[in-house]
Amino acid sequence: MLRRLYVHNFRCLENFELTFNGQSSTLLLGKNGSGKTSVGLALEVLQKIARGTNRIDSMAKPKDFSRGRADVPMRFEIEVELDRKIYAYTIAFEFPDGFKELRVVEEKLVADGTPLYTRTLAQVWLPVRAKAQEKEAKFLIDWHLAALPIIQEYSSADPLFIFKQWLSRVLILRPIPELITGESRDETLEPNIRVTNFGAWFSGLIALSPASYSQIDGYLKHVLTDLKQITNPLVGKDFRTLVAEFKNEYGTVSIPFEDLSDGEKCFMISALVLAANRVYGPLLCFWDEPDNYLAISEVGHFVMELRKAFLEGGQFITTSHNPETIRHFSDESTIVLDRRSHLEPATIRRLSDLQIQGDLVGALIRGDVFS
Question: Taking the CB of residue 152, how many other CB atoms lie within 10 A of it?
Fold first, then answer.
């Protein structure tokens, strides 16, 4: 479970610290430009590193410094609890005069207070690891590369492997349904931000756990009551495409995934999120405005199913402007982000600490929450 996220000098996030107090689900609330999406972008930087993207220029640019302030390092820190062990990962970038790209100034991974590796500029240090029966080691690395994807883990029980796998499987979702076709040539357990590899994610999940289809099917039949089944047939030597089959008393119709409505595709994504958290979780899921494509009558059930699914493990973080979503989060699980102008950083307040007159949605409409 994510315990803490700290970001400094990245976009509108300066000395920005989110703590989650054991909450299984959290709503980030705020006006446009308050920093909600930037939180997801910060998580995306860390996720990319764990997924093997080690060139800093591929995850952050000089323009990402807050107000162009490149004299202070851009810093990311994440603290998570996995298998009763506390992991803390830190990476910081700087942009010295004369350089064309950002470089790493500091990086380290610590498990329960014990360093797994530390790094300053180009120098990486690996301490003695008793279980690996290896001596202390030092080596140099290109200072434009992150070390985490490069350092070899020894087994699936290695704390380095456990943390890296958890971070690589973080779900950061900002889907554009019209771009999702359901086609795939391979399998994955790591959907991209836009979820345009949905077909590969579906294939990977079913390959890992064929029984997960029953959970996906059960959820979808609850929200799409005439759904008969989802198929993923081969249409070439190594090419698959998802098809949704619907049935009622008048007959049956098969619809290619790409022709489903935007809202129906969001239900499909939600079904995979729920199944993935059960099959290869616990996962952290950050979904930016998941209710964008839904009807008002659909939002409440959609949000509550996601919240309930993460009560048994994992964590769900979302952003929204939708009154129905807001109503389905408690004050204790809602964090308010605010930003008075584009020349000031985002600030954080817990909704439970604010004095709200009347109902929350009414206060939001009046602007009382952010005043």
Answer: 9
Burial class (CB in 10 A: 0-12, 13-18, 19+), 306: buried
* Distance separating alpha carbons of residues 279 and 273, to the nearest angstrom: 10
Are 162 and 140 within 8 A, CB to CB? no
Strands (E) across the chain are located at 2-8, 16-19, 25-29, 74-82, 85-94, 103-111, 114-120, 123-126, 137-140, 171-173, 183-184, 227-231, 240-241, 243-248, 251-256, 284-288, 315-319, 334-338, 347-350
For residues 154 and 131, is the Cβ–Cβ distance under 8 A?
A: yes
pTM of the model: 0.92
Q: Is the peptide bond before 149 cis (omega within 30 degrees of 0)?
A: no
Name the packing angle between helices 36-50 and 159-168 (round to 10°). Answer: 130
pLDDT by residue for the chain (371 residues), tens only, comes to 899 999 999 999 999 999 988 889 999 998 899 999 999 999 999 999 999 988 999 999 999 999 889 899 999 999 999 989 999 999 999 999 888 899 999 999 999 999 999 999 999 999 866 555 566 789 999 999 999 999 988 888 899 999 999 999 999 999 999 999 999 999 999 999 999 999 999 999 999 999 999 999 999 999 999 999 999 999 888 899 999 999 998 999 999 999 999 999 999 999 999 999 999 999 999 999 999 999 999 999 999 999 999 998 999 999 999 999 999 998 889 999 999 888 899 999 888 776 665 566 666 655 666 65
127 phi/psi in degrees, rounded to 5: -70, 170
